[in-house]
């Protein structure tokens, strides 16, 4: 995949272009991948709500799709 995941991307968009990232979101405790919040919430917004380091998550997501 040539797309790079960034913190300003909406979670649902990331999952639609790279479904393999679902496991990464789950490992970080973001079980919202299927809820309505994921449809409009960016990775950065979700990290703020869940107390997750956004850069760490973005790095893990990009490693998954590399």
Order of helices and strands: HHHHH
* Terminal Cα span: 7 Å
Quickly give the structural class.
mainly alpha
Quote the average pLDDT. Answer: 91
Provide the fold topology:
Elements: H1 11-17, H2 22-27, H3 37-40, H4 43-50, H5 54-65
Give a structural overview:
- With 66 residues, this protein is an all-alpha fold.
- The chain has one domain.
- Helices cover 56% and strands 0% of the residues.
- The protein has 5 helices and no strands.
- It is globular and about 25 Å long.
- The model has no long low-confidence stretch (mean pLDDT 91).
Characteristics:
66 residues, mainly alpha, single chain
Describe the structure concisely:
The protein has 66 residues and is mainly alpha-helical.
């Amino acid at each position: 995949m040539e797309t790079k995941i960034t913190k300003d991307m909406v979670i649902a968009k990331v999952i639609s272009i790279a479904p393999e990232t679902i496991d990464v979101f789950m490992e970080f405790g973001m079980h919202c991948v299927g809820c309505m919040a994921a449809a409009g919430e960016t990775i950065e917004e979700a990290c703020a709500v869940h107390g997750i380091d956004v850069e760490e998550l973005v790095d893990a997501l990009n490693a998954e799709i590399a």
